[in-house]
Design a protein that fits this description.
Chain lengths: 331, 347
Amino acid sequence: MSELKDKSTVQSGQGLGTADKSKEIVVRRKNPLKKHIKLNWQLYAMMAIPLIYYVVFRYIPMAGNIIAFRRYRAGSSVFGDEWSGLKYFQQFIKQASFHRVFKNTLWLNVSYLLFRFPLTLSFALLLNELRNIRWKKFVQTVSYLPHFISVVLVAGMIRELVSASGPINNLIQSLGSEHILFLSESKWFTTIFVTSGLWQSLGWGTILYLAAMANINPNLYEAAEVDGAGHFRRVLHVTIPSIMPTIVTLLILDFGSLVGSGASFEKVYLIYNPMIYEKADIISTFVFRMGLGSGNYSYATAIGLFEGVINLILLSIANFTAKKVVGNGLW
Amino acid sequence: MKNITDKELLEKSELHQKAAESRESARRYQEKFIGKTMVPELQADGQKLKTAKDLVIRRSNKKESKGYRAFTVFNNVLMLLISAATLYPFLYLVAQSFSSEAAIIQKKVSIIPVGFNITTYISVLSKGDFLGYYKNTIIYAFLGTVLSLIFTACLAYPLSKPLKANKFLTPFVIFTMYFGGGLIPNYVWITRLGLKGSMWGFILPMLIGTFYVLLMKSFFANTPKELEEAGELDGLSKIGIFIRIVLPLSKPIVATMTLFYAVLYWNHWFNAFLYLRKPQWPVAYYLKTIITGASSAEPGEVTAEKMQIASNVKSCAMVLMVLPIICVYPIVQRYYVQGMMLGGVKE
């Protein structure tokens, strides 16, 4: 019954689809540009304000990166006063604290990826095995929830949970150990960073996988069954190969953002403190302190630009690779 | 004339939806069924199962493998644990917010409030400024969401059309996702525009999210062309087609976008930190000041809030902030996922 309906709508949809082909030919004739604009000026008008917005709020600040090469003083033009060459770049390249934040950024990103990637994939596969639809929906709903919570709240929760009187220390003490000041000892920072990240993103990260799984043709499973494949073999030989393009794309793109620190800025900023800078300070927090904290605008911009350019290069490489390998990239 | 076409359109879209629904249920049914029938040895001779009756008989004959049953148990327990671990921090906050300070210090609170009271809530809510911040958040979230939706749609729709300029405009928009002015150039520029100290300093920098533009664009690109052409034949202008035909068909993506933007504005604190003065703060930034306490390395304002604040007060403020999201979220979650999938289907 339902299949019948399905087919009929698909057919009618196709029938209508052929109608538009004949029309496109008519438009061509003298001065195509004029005609094009006359025909579509309303669409261009619709875009006008948003495009101006992109110029004003995206491209002008982008051009503002020029102050990495020009000296900026409070009150001077947003594009700086006079050229200073690569002075600021030379300064931070030599600085030990820059090396530290670069290393920390890379380390935190790698550790996070190492856990997040396999766990998200396994979680998606396990979710897909739940047969009770309502139960599955419930688990999904619950696990997506932390994605919609403000970073401020996440930071607040972290602080409450690991505080000296919080439940984690409570547990440690009831097991007979001394309480731990998690946010004052740098060795705990990676753990806190990764765990809270997983808490927030594990569920949401499964969406693309689940979408890919939903698109697997059920006939494949049937065929595998016919061939005598049990449950686990079907996962291994049908599910995983079918979602392989998604897996590879996501993985490659993750590699492309390994040096990025912008996404973690807020969380790190809200939970770190000078006692744990050694492990917790990342590029973006460093830029923030150097720039808005100490007023070295040009210096901070130089570091930010350095990171931005590296990211762009890595992402381009990743995108290129993804396109080569699975034929699907970001752009 | 137009009334008729509108009705037709509506019917058509409903039909589409129904078809999609029935497809979905068919798929689910199939999935369920396949999941429960394990009949490998029967197929050894290449024999195919044809009728449902056949299947039912086979299923009752064949039991699921032991390993699989053990796995199912393990999987369900694991899912239960994951759900519990996800919910625990929320429950802990709620328990703390209803507990007395003394009980918290003595570490008696885990997920059940100890020394139950609502005085914390009363004192937080009656301290005039909290409600003020809450009101600010509501204003920013509402105004921001409306404006964001309008401009995102106005950009996404033309981008989804085969316009000549799009060859250049699409990369122009997308590029900003991967490269941009860093923190400092943005700060300098926004300040120079005179937006510091005004609510526009909070809203404008995040008015249009490029990712959302792309989601919407790919949704619009999948709108059946023939419907738009029917509108054209009826003499509708391009904008008319967009408003009268495309938008009514785009409810799922509009719903999704509304939620994304509303959550974005509701949760945002950093622009408030950079550009807003105290009475203008949204609740997220107020929370930040009470959570981080006397935090290090902060430029500018030193506020009275920067002292130790009792855990139950913090928890209470956090619960109040997250409450609207928790209440609305389960109802609208469907749209999030749907919209992500609808928009996410590339090409």
